[in-house]
Amino acid sequence: MNLKQSLEMTQTMNSVMEQFLQSSIKIMVSERDLLRVPSGPTDTKILQSTDTPSQPTLVIAITNTSQFPIHNVSGQISFQPPSADLDQASLSPSPPTIALTLLTSTRRAIRPPTTSVTAPALFMTPPALTTLVPLTRHTETVRLVPSVLAQFNATVTLRFPSPGTGKALGVEHGFGVYLADQLSKHVHPSSDPVSAPWDTEGSATLTRSYSVGFLREIMCFNPAFGVEAGMWVGLVGAGGNGKTVSLTCLIRSIDLTHSLAECAIYETGPMDAAETGESKLAGRLIFPGFDCLDLYGPLRFFGTRTEDFTIKIVAETHNPVPSTARAATHVDHTFDDCPHLDVVLLPGGIGTRAGVKNERLLGFIRAKAEAATYVLTVCTGSGLLAATGVLDGRKATSNKMAWDWVIGNGECMGDAGVKWDRVEHMRELPFSAGMDMGLHFIERICGKEAALWTARTSEYDWHQDPNWDPFTDMIEAENEKLENSKQ
After folding, report:
1. Which of 28, 90, 99, 428 is deepest in the core (most CB within 10 A)?
2. Does the structure show a pLDDT above 90 at 236?
């Protein structure tokens, strides 16, 4: 082996090791409130303290899944208000920020026996350099101190030098920070003797229906919590220009049939409407050869809920993207400038065949899908998601005529007998069923009445049963007829 071959082999080995180390770092971020268990033998629920508010916090878990140590790791968390919040941000004398206060920083092996030990903090100022120990999770809990209540796009960034070349390497994870994340919360059972703040004269009221699951998520209820009518949550935080924001969410009733909670929101302190930050950023990823119905069918319904969804079209470049019908669609964001997405929708179309060979497209889909709260696919869009590995071990469905191709792109468990499917936060569905899925998703986020209103005003016959799929039998009959003709 000559010197040139030796150098090329060394460069290849370094490149492989760098990619391996980067892929071995897994970042997860969750928002939670500090809970306490009330004392006394009669306590049957886990409730937050009613005399001391909990603190809004972020829990950042970084896991080194490899068997190699990663040295000299530094961390940073950045918060950037999306464009929709810039006008609100201008009310403050300086750009809105979120300061962090460290609560805990620990390290724990991911395999038993496990014991937590104190570890250097990665995300404080000045930042500390630390080593990510093999097969170990580094967890930091930090308190959020926002300068103004607004929606933020946040990014966790880890940087470390390559062990072979010293080149700077990095890993990023994006997520969203909303109003509910930035408020301290008191949770009160229906039997709480504390005087109800909504008795105050002049309190403003907004009534909305939320799914019980969504309410648990935004209010950060403990899993042991029993959600019941009469329960109320007090939320307190510092708004812009030194204002104090105070809200109360009262659960008026529970619809057990549809798992919906009718809630009354009372404004018991000053707050501007622009500070609510409730709208979810929904990104529609398109590529050459996407199917128009897959994109614009669900988009028609989401567009009726502008108070709940901010819709953006994302593609690899800013150039208009042609569909299967050759009609081009305008692009809002590229892979390079796309913010964190709460909802990701992947359409199908003949372009998915080339898409599964596009490593940049698959890498972008994988990153956004892992960071998003909800991922929706239509038709052969589930084939793109399967090719990223995100669907491995999950159930999925798709266009029946492309069934074998879709399930051949990953290790997902096919379910051809349903029109749309729900697995945790992942939904995969075939062709025009994307419109039924869109209404089902609106039902989950906005409530049953909102979904019914959207379908009615669109004059659309909403099929609510996921097992309603006459096309499976039709296609099977056609395939059987074709096979018989060959004999």
Report:
1. 428
2. no
pLDDT at 430: 42
3 state DSSP class of 462: coil
DSSP secondary structure string for all residues of 181-213: GGSEEEEE-TT--SPPGGGSTT-EEEEEEEEHH
Q: Which two tokens stand for residue 85?
A: 């919040």
Structure-block tokens of residue 273 = 């409407």
Q: Distance between CA atoms of 203 and 200, rounded to whole angstroms?
A: 6
Average pLDDT of the residues in 377-405: 78
Give the pLDDT of residue 427: 40
pLDDT at residue 205, rounded to an integer: 60
**Nearest Cα to Cα of residue 196 among 188, 207, 204, 206:** 188
With beta carbons less than 8 A apart as the criterion, state whether 91 and 240 touch.
Answer: yes
Highest mean pLDDT among 220-234, 318-332, 369-383: 318-332
Is-contact 383 350, C-beta < 8 A?
A: no
What predicted TM-score, i.e. pTM, was given to this entire model?
Answer: 0.48
> Starting from the edge strand earliest in sequence, which strands make up the sheet with 244-255, in order?
184-188, 232-238, 244-255, 260-267, 204-211
In the chain, where are the structural domains located?
46-177, 183-275, 280-478
Phi, psi of 438 (to 5 degrees): -60, -40
Most confident range, picked from 196-200, 271-275, 304-308: 304-308
DSSP calls for 68-136: S-EEEEEEEEEEE--GGGHHHHTTSSS---EEEEEEEEEEEESSSS---EE---SSSSSPPPEEE-TTE
Helix, strand, coil in percent for the chain, rounding step 5: 30, 30, 40
CA–CA dist 364, 412 (Å, integer):
19
| Dihedral over Cα of 258, 445, 243, 76: its sign | positive
Position 428 confidence tier, pLDDT thresholds 50, 70, 90: very low
- pLDDT digit string, tens, across residues 293-327: 888 888 888 888 876 788 899 999 999 999 988 88
Find out whether 246 and 235 touch, Cβ atoms under 8 Å. yes
**Superfamily name and number for 280-478:** Class I glutamine amidotransferase (GATase) domain (3.40.50.880)
Question: In Å, what is the CA distance from 340 to each residue of 185, 278, 284, 287, 459?
Answer: 25, 15, 12, 19, 33
When pLDDT is averaged across residues 67-90 and rounded to a whole number, the result is 72
Tokens of 219: 């209010």
- Give the relative orientation of helices 433-446 and 292-302 as an angle to the nearest 10 degrees: 30
Q: Specify the CATH number for 46-177; select among 2.60.40, 2.40.240, 3.40.50, 1.10.1040.
A: 2.60.40
> 212-219 vs 433-446: helix axis angle to the nearest 10?
50
